[in-house]
User: Fold these one by one.
Assistant:
Number 1:
Amino acid sequence: MRILLTGGLGFIGSAVIRRLIATTDHVVVNVDKETYAASHEALDAARGHARHVHLKADICDPAAMAAAFAEWQPEVVMHLAAESHVDRSIDGPAEFIRTNVVGTQVLLEAARAYWSGLDAPRKAAFRFHHISTDEVFGSLESVEEKPFDEHTPYDPRSPYSASKAASDHLVRAWHHTYGFPAFVSNTTNNYGPWQFPEKLIPLVSLNALDGKPLPVYGDGSNIRDWIHVEDHAEALVLAALHAGKPGGTYCIGPRQERSNLQVVHAICAVLDRLRPDPAGPRARLITFVKDRPGHDFRYAMDPTSAEVALGWRAKYDFESGLEHTLRWYLDHEDWWGPIRARRYAGQRLGGANTAG
């Protein structure tokens, strides 16, 4: 089988490729534009593997996408390429609209044109899996409110989540209008090895190792549901290759809700144990900063339907997953050190257009 996967040099995409190379005999065609967060290193042994093909291309380029389908003739598409950082979307929403909305439309049209020319058996077997986020559902306003599920109405609140909601709607429209065999999965906050250090867990972890302030938005009470990227990758492979049904929606989550402040304290506690700071407990570095504009209070999903459909359940609890992740960062300064030195040093994003 040949799988065309977009965004394979990204955090989640690279985890999916590592899993596909390690656990299947399929060929993976990795379409990636190589933006600021791309990491060739994240592919580990997959980089030189005979079943991994790297194609540097932009999903917004119709000719490049048509050529990719014509040359590689995939049976499955896994669409992960996206701009994904909320704070960056606040500072510059245009790139999110271009990549997440226009790029998805271009990819859908290239895939549909290719699919339309297949013979009946290959046409029936073809699948297009669009990977999305729980943020499209909006904000839960209390800890008592029922988690999101496959029937929750969309209510995106940030430029990022609005762009992902639009892409989800396009995928469903292509299915219902053209009969195109596409489906959507939505997931919660991912964490784990190889995550670009603009996101909360690597940002706080690396700041803590450097003795720098640990920024917490507002009072730190905002809640997210945290899934280890290896658990998510397993679920995505099961959905794309085995269980995903055209027109379906799969809410993939681990039931691991934590407030941002709880996450930061947990990071401090693990690092204090693994690599003590002579200056004292790292919780002393916690610094409350002005909240992000439009900061959603809580995201949480009920994954029951997806667990049944996929025959899957998250293996990592948050504590073991966090320690696994922090041990990895401690062992891989050769990767994140140059990024912090040259590409992203931990500066605040998402406040450029706000007062104060």
Number 2:
Amino acid sequence: MKSGRCSRRRDCAVRRPALTAVLITAALLLTACSGGGDSEPSDDTGSESGPSRSGGSARPDSETPPEKGSAKVTRTVTTGLKSPWGLAPLPGGDLLVSSRDEATITRIDEDTGKKILLGSVPGVASEGEGGLMGLALSPTFGADHQVYAYFTTESDNRIVRMLYDEKKPKGQQLSAPDTVFKGIPKGHVHNGGRIAFGPDKMLYAGTGETGDTGQAQDKKSLGGKILRMTPEGEPADGNPESDSVVYSYGHRNVQGLAWDKKQRLWAAEFGQDTWDELNAIGPGKNYGWPEIEGKGDDTSYVDPVAQWKTSDASPSGIAWSKGSVWMAGLGGERLWRIPLDGTKPVADPEAFLEGKYGRLRTVVAAGTDKLWVVTNETDSRGTPEKGDDRILEVQVK
């Protein structure tokens, strides 16, 4: 375990001054499904994940979380991971984890921590902040056994899917990648990388502006956006523009995506010099970068629900559990809890695990009161110690 160490290192190259801190009120109109086919949009459809639309006043949730919570590491699931990034729980309880720099996907036995190499992903160009990043299982994984991945190539960032056949020999269990979507801008920095399926069974992806700030406000660019597409990579029905996968824009570097029980979409985003952000995402909304960092005075842009000094966060993955968004901090080396009533914070964010396990990259819900948390000390920006990197089981309330 790390002892009182906080390196303050970030996954960003540069930052830019900005303003102060906040919250936003928004009701989020959703299109989602819970079984067969899309349903009509509803503000209050109860579910653990789904797309959202902002506008109007937020309705309070029926179970408001307490102002104070807790997060306790109950065990270390596995150790010895190299540059872990994406995490995808399998239906049976085991975990798939990607290695950004080694371009591999490994299966972790959730009970014993034993590792089984599924295979390497060809075509990955691992340099800077690029490489093999987000993972997601097909919404029909039980039938099609498809694993989706977001990675950097020599020319772009792209999303692929691979057939996972566990009956094949170790190291040969992944098929050749089938490209689902390509042409996302790549750079030495700010490649985004998080992917997730919503309850509407559409695929969402967080992208970065690669250090070219103009991409974020350019709706024709795929950089600095949240994208929404079908599992085949086509623009999804209900997108702001019918011929575009762009769902929201004005982002700097989105690496956290999660939905709450009302199917509101949340995103964590790296700021530059002043504020990191947690945003409630609505289709077609502009989140301000590079014109605004953090809260601004311009109603053309959506203000964040919560924000942090850049030394305290550097947010990557997020998850929803127990009425709160839980956010992994890289430079801040801590796990943040943001308790919410609708889209309004119940109290100031709480920090847990500060400096104890180093940089935290990914957090995934693991049942009603547990999280999987992935450390990130071996990606060249941390100070790895014996056992790094690891997956932690964390009990929360």
Number 3:
Amino acid sequence: MTTAPRLTALDALHRSLGATMTDFAGWDMPLRYGSERDEHNAVRTRAGLFDLSHMGEITVTGPQAVELLDFALVGNISTVGTGRARYTMICREDGGILDDLIVYRLGETEAGSPHYMVVANASNAQIVLDALTERAAGFDAEVRDDRDAYALIAIQGPESPGILKSVTDADLDGLKYYAGLPGTVAGVPALIARTGYTGEDGFELFLRPEHAEGVWKALTGAGEGVGLIPCGLSCRDTLRLEAGMPLYGHELTTSLTPFDAGLGRVVKFEKTTNEGRFVGREALEKAAERAETAPPRRLVGLVAEGRRVPRAGFSVVKDGEVVGEVTSGAPSPTLGKPIAMAYVDAAHAEPGTPGVGVDIRGTHEPYEVVALPFYKRQK
């Protein structure tokens, strides 16, 4: 059995651009091409181009596709209109989060049944595929692994609409946030979605792997005059951290429910399909009650007063006591200071709580508790 990482359709192109590559969730992915800070700032002020072909696309079709997804996921998928997308989660029976997902309703199949695409995180794609397949028992629906059918390119940043407009026939002005429509990009068919993981306006383009290099080059050419640059996973992480977006394995795990993560809004108890039944419902109702009455910890932002960077797993402290744990931390290019997300005891989670610090190798460094996100784009 080979353990060599999988390569995306853009692998040769990344190497030709001098990318530093890294193994991520079993894929060889670009970490950075040059300076992480420059790539981060390009997305905040101009535009950046990302290869996200490691994400896991799963197609769900059939007469009971809606019922299956409403049963398998915590969201109300029956209310997602054609051409729209929904952020949701798949949980275990005990309410623990298996993954966070985006579900796109693509329209109808040739047979006239609903056609959905579920996009899972690369590290959880097989877990989500297995769970959906298992949960499909008893439903007239098909779950198909389409990870090899797509390459995924993201263009993010304030200049991205103008760049994409110059190489597509699609009506981008009419495309809302969390919506997707079929169109052509650089002459090839693509699903164009106004989604992203950076806190900026931008698009994710799902296309056939053999078309990926041509589309990447066309976008690069179209963005030359406005400062578009290729971007790696490293700046994607600092961008999502500034935007307060959770990362599976850090802010989201099987030991947490969506309510523990401050994302209880994605759980919909008022579903009309399956008599309201869905996997994890009973556990999540209890978690919702706990979150209302006595939440053990809350997800907060921390901004450093000094220069030392907190990392995942570091203890949050107050008056010598451990009151929480850092889940993600990094220097913030936008704020010019180290920042972190952390789960902190509810009693110390209010913005401005005095005396909170992070234990960085034995020294209690002072941090300010702030509300998330750290950064919000001006619309």
Number 4:
Amino acid sequence: MKIKHSIALFIVILSISNAFAQDKKFKVHTVAFYNFENLFDTINDPDTYDEEYTPAEGWTSKNYKKKLDNLSRVLIELGTSESQKNSPVIIGACEIENRRVLEDLTKHPTLINKGYKVVHFDSPDKRGIDVGFLYQEKHFQPTSYINVPLYVYESESTSDKKDKKEEEETEENVNYDKKTKRIYTRDQLLVTGLLDGEEINIIVNHWPSRSGGEKKSSPYREAAGRLNRKIMDSIIKINPNAKIITMGDLNDGSYNKSVKQGIGAKLKKEELKKPADIFNPFEQMAKDGHATLFYRDSGDIFDQIMVSEEFIPKDKNDYSTFKYWKAGIYNKPFLIQKTGQYKGYPLRNQNGVPGFSDHFPVYIYLVQEVK
């Protein structure tokens, strides 16, 4: 995994795709998203419901270290190949307890030489889980960042008395304020910065869960999709040529209303007609039967990365600025449960033993021609 010090911009010759002329040189950057599945430290925070991840409940310093070992192994290899040796320059993350755990991860011996820095805000989620943003400082420099809260409220139309008892046992109920009926969930994190000098905007998401059932909870994710769309429209209003990436664990598939109508994501690049339009490469992957998580033996892609129209080459040979190339799901064998009831599922935390995650990470490649 060592990179020669003389390579400042990580320039590679792309001979693996006929989309590029073979006498041209390109630099390739990986942008990734990963649900870290309960990356908690061992300290009991009195303001959140984190008791499950304390030494009193078996979450020891040894377990925490093992979790960091596992995640760092994934991140250093994520999106790499024979022609792409560098780990992701940008990583969106979710299910992290606080800034401290991200700092610990970036200081892990496996990752420390990559020079990752952190953008993080505490979310109002009562379990204490947030979204976060990691970036390689030598390639990406943030110019602004903000957390945008999602306000969703329970209404009588989305529940009835019969469901109340069941709701009390759900994760989402932990985040429910009985007085205001607000459901506290994760903020959406917007980071704007320069990728090797070129401005891009990234939104990191972790939308409300399906606790209480998909149908009942769908309005909350639909609201999250609309908020995402509002953020993107605000960016485009300021800069009509803005480049936007939105990523996250959406707790919905690419076909759900929150994504198709809320964001307005498109299946095909040819459907993009204006700068505000968004292409979702993971919709076709879902149609082809791929998955980032499984539930009751059914797979789906809740982890998605989408790009705005400005990332799509209007001329197939024009890569003078960073353009979207292709996307992938990182599901190497070491990330997969080999035996038992959950054979074939992501290798998650179980029976007191830290795993990797109950989600596979996803990534996209951005490429730019080097003159």
